[in-house]
Design brief:
By secondary structure, the protein is of the alpha/beta class. Helix content is about 30%, strand content about 20%. It has a 4-stranded mixed β-sheet. A 3-stranded mixed β-sheet has the order 3-4-5, with helices on one face. About 50% of the residues are buried. It binds N~2~-(3-carboxypropanoyl)-L-arginine (SUG). N~2~-(3-carboxypropanoyl)-L-arginine binds near residues 342 and 343.
Length: about 425
């Protein structure tokens, strides 16, 4: 079978909550202290996967991590019962659902050895995400275990922050052709941390064996980070030969666009001017945190959060875009409000891997029937609601652990060490 894009969505974990842990992520700060609804959150994510399958896309999953993270708490000199509320919230975080931060992926046509390379992200910038990588790495090693087709790398060492595919884009004429890979990094300067370090991006590109002549390192604008674009995928997304971006996403867009035109003359840049959509509106609506996909009939579609329709300047611009002659022809709206309230849109929830599905462990691929199986587990086991002050409850911990165990069982992944 030919190489196809597989979207691996994170299943929203049973400990999903709003503890306000991510400095620089405006939605996370805004919703701090709210009551979260893990069951509804997971069902929303599964409905998005279902809708994407119905569109003809190939769908994969990654699993919630074991929470609380007892191993990590022990290394922090604590256990869950004895931890202070902040340490407890870090240990209970369900943030692994945002699999755009799981790894950076370079498909086989881009790499020197012709294998698909994945580097697990270290996520060292945020305490609650800094202990995700062992759980992610274990899943990647299982899902992409075939050494003839995949190489899975350990994370880049600290202190060089790496947040994975959320700061990485590809432009290519077809999935079988080498692409231009674009690594977007930040530099501090504004009120918020820059979470992607250029040294980490360079390390990933080198270990993937990318051709330096087809690899770009591009700086995110300080204004974008200051406005709440804690990852580049909040202000830009690529697919095929299309770059869909806000005018203020990059520190030097003119030289970046010139490099792209030189490396890929067929590139189509859809730039949204700040005069039509402010950075604030772009980030409020998450119009760029969309899945830009090619449907089986070749049409390019943007899978957007419902919130994009609620910001008039954004919706007007999108309507004008569709009415025009541009490369993006279709808009699809999805409800992922529970995730959005923590700053995670449709694109945050998925990791793109270009591969032959037959080379992937089938337990990480889903069709409508397997989605239904997961929905049944979620409906039966996921907590209906969690308020941050409940994160210390022993009964909640027991429910969260039982819920994950039931999911592993249903997916034939019990006993794999995950
Ligand atoms: O890392 N939110 C995540 C959202 C990640 C979005 N991913 C991409 N843009 N690809 C983050 O900031 C909030 C958790 C909390 O506050 O409890 C959080 O971690």
């Amino acid at each position: 079978m030919a190489l196809v894009e597989i979207n691996f969505d994170g299943i929203v974990g049973p400990s999903h909550n709003y503890a306000g842990l991510s400095l620089g992520n405006l939605a996370s700060a805004r919703n701090k202290g709210e009551t979260a609804h893990p069951r509804a959150a997971a069902l929303q994510g599964l409905a998005k996967m279902r809708a994407n399958i119905a569109l003809g896309l190939t769908q994969g999953i990654l699993l919630p991590h074991a929470r609380p993270d007892h191993d990590w708490l022990a290394r922090m000199g604590s256990d869950h019962g004895g931890a202070d509320p902040l340490l407890r919230a870090w240990a209970m975080s369900a943030a692994a659902m945002w699999t755009a931060n799981a790894a950076t992926v370079s498909p086989a046509p881009d790499t020197a050895d012709g294998r698909c390379h994945l580097t697990c992200a270290n996520l060292v910038s945020m305490p609650h995400r800094s202990h995700e990588w062992p759980g992610t790495l274990a899943q990647l090693r299982l899902a992409f275990a075939d050494p003839a087709h995949f190489t899975v790398h350990n994370p880049v060492p600290a202190p060089f922050g790496d947040e994975g595919a959320a700061n990485h884009m590809r432009l290519c004429a077809s999935h079988d052709a080498p692409s231009v890979e674009i690594f977007v990094y930040g530099q501090s300067g504004g009120p918020f941390p820059a979470r992607q370090h250029v040294a980490a991006s360079r390390a990933v590109a080198a270990s993937h064996g990318l051709d330096p002549a087809r690899t770009l390192f591009v700086q995110q604008s300080v204004e974008a980070i200051a406005a709440g674009a804690f990852h580049n995928d909040v202000v830009a997304v690529t697919n095929g030969t299309v770059l869909f971006t806000h005018e203020q996403a990059f520190a030097a867009n003119n030289s970046f666009y010139a490099d792209l035109a030189r490396l890929m003359p067929s590139v189509q840049i859809v730039e949204v001017p700040a005069a039509r959509v402010s950075l604030a509106d772009a980030i409020r609506s998450y119009m760029f945190n969309a899945q830009l996909v090619t449907l089986p009939d070749g049409v390019s579609a943007l899978i957007l959060p419902d919130e994009a329709r609620e910001v008039p300047a954004v919706w007007d611009w999108l309507q004008d875009m569709i009415a025009g002659n541009g490369p993006i022809r279709r808009l699809e709206l999805v409800n992922v409000r529970q995730s959005m309230s923590n700053g995670g849109g449709p694109a945050c929830l998925r990791l793109r891997v270009v591969a032959d599905p037959l080379t992937v462990d089938p337990r990480f691929l889903v069709d409508a029937e397997r989605i239904a199986r997961i929905e049944a587990v979620v409906s039966a086991f996921w907590p209906e609601s969690i308020a941050p002050e409940q994160l210390g409850d022993a009964a909640l911990v027991a429910q969260v652990e039982a819920a994950r165990a039931a999911l592993l069982d249903a997916l034939d992944l019990a006993g794999t060490g995950l």
